[in-house]
């Protein structure tokens, strides 16, 4: 298989005339380049228009002996919850003579695959090469899922240690990333569930095995299941966050209640002595020690008794 990195009209025409299978991978094609490519390969005008505008949903369109497969590849970044560009749209044109991949930004998974093909000299079937390209794009989600798993576990530990506004923001960012990934993966899963056999049956593709595309479908099912489980984990993080906030508010309320309860008898004593101070000053509080014992002593004794009662019933203990 020949690997080409730029649109060379003469070379493309020569390879198509000889029916020599090739892979053309183009990064950031311009409108003029896509139109040239469409003319050289005889692509359907609707397919060319899709690749000029991009912004397509994952799909598979069959035009005679050529298929346009639109995929969304994953772009890894750390941390994933702050990934500004988690997806890369890739257009794959497939026929018995070629596979063409168009994408706007460099895509490391395809670059690594090209290096692998160049190192391996053993010839493979055309279906195998198509499968490897599609599989490399689909498998790009697995490193992202591994990163998300670690981030969710770290988030849970952080929330338990002390829930704050930053953790709440991370929860919402994770939910957005998971939703973006799921919106990309589910349509691809549906495409391979219903129409993957159409790729294997394209005229001119060397017959090999339909198991290749069933393997891609299995990977997409696994990715979808993991995304669903991670979404549930993030939702449980939201419940955990609310529970921790409620517990903290309960602890604060309990502490304030204890303080208010201690001051309740103190307020009663000061009010009682204050309203009867004239009589008490003439009959009871005749000395300094008497004032200390009756005035301050009763308040200290009341506060100590209240505190002992709270400790005895376990009301002063934390939720730990």
Automatic annotation (TrEMBL):
The chain crosses the membrane at residues 256-275, 287-310. It is found in: Cell membrane. Keywords: Cell membrane, Membrane, Transmembrane, Transmembrane helix, Transport. Pfam families: CorA (PF01544). It is a multi-pass membrane protein. The keyword Transmembrane helix applies. Belongs to the CorA metal ion transporter (MIT) (TC 1.A.35) family. This is Magnesium/cobalt transporter CorA. The gene is corA_2.
């Amino acid at each position: 298989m020949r690997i080409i990195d730029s649109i060379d009209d003469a070379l493309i025409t020569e390879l198509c005339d000889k029916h020599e299978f090739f892979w053309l991978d183009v990064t950031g094609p311009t409108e003029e380049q896509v139109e040239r490519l469409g003319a050289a390969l005889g692509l359907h005008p609707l397919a060319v228009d899709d690749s000029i505008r991009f912004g397509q949903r994952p799909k598979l369109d069959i035009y005679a002996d050529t298929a346009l497969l639109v995929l969304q590849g994953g772009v890894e970044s750390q941390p994933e919850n702050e990934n500004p560009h988690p997806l890369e749209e890739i257009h794959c044109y497939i026929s018995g003579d070629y596979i063409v991949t168009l994408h706007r930004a460099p895509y490391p998974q395809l670059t690594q695959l090209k290096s692998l093909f160049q190192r391996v000299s053993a010839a493979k079937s055309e279906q195998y090469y198509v499968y490897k390209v599609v599989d490399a794009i689909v498998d790009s989600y697995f490193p992202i899922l591994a990163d998300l798993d670690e981030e969710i576990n770290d988030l849970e530990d952080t929330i338990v240690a002390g829930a704050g506004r930053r953790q709440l923001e991370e929860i919402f960012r994770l939910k957005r990333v998971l939703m973006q990934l799921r919106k990309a993966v589910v349509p691809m899963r549906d495409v391979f569930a219903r129409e993957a056999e159409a790729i294997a049956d394209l005229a001119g593709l060397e017959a090999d095995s339909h198991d290749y595309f069933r393997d891609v479908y299995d990977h997409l099912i696994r990715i979808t299941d993991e995304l669903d489980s991670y979404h549930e984990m993030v939702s449980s993080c939201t419940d955990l966050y609310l529970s921790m906030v409620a517990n903290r508010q309960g602890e604060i309320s309990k502490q304030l209640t204890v303080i208010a309860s201690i001051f309740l008898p103190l307020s009663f004593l000061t009010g009682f002595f204050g309203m009867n101070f004239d009589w008490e000053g003439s009959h009871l509080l005749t000395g300094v020690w008497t004032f200390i014992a009756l005035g301050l002593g009763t308040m200290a004794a009341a506060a100590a008794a209240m505190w002992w009662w709270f400790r005895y019933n376990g009301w002063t203990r934390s939720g730990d």
